[in-house]
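Side project, low priority. Logging it here so it doesn't get lost.
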Amino acid sequence: MKRLKKKNLIFLTLGFFTPFALKTAKVNAGAFGAEIFCTMRDGGNDHESSWDAAYSYIKKQKGGLFKVSPKNAAAQITETVIREREKFQYCVEYLDQLHPNRKLIRDINKEKKRKEKEAKDRERKMMQLEENNQEFSEETFERYSY
């Protein structure tokens, strides 16, 4: 019975302190991710390369079973920049690119897929027409034969 109580006490203690340990790692990863993003942007790099570097660092530092989503990583960077405004004052202007209009992106992707499908359909119809024309071209028509 005492063993069971000791095990329960150990698990309870671990369960209580583990979230605090994970939270600080997450905060530190977000802070350094923000530093990477802002430094690269301030250095003249484009948004994509800066975002990829910061996001890959945050993903790597998070560890664990579940990975950080891009939306969550962008939120971490934004929180850090806002929380430490004096340190990252030059970076505020780049924050809007971290949160793109997802509906607009979805609509653009749908339109792109629709155009690709139309192009394939047109190509398929042209192939069918060419096949039909080959059938007719093999036959000879005499102009005045009735």
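Brief comment: Residues 11 and 94 are 44 Å apart (CA to CA).
Revisit when time allows.
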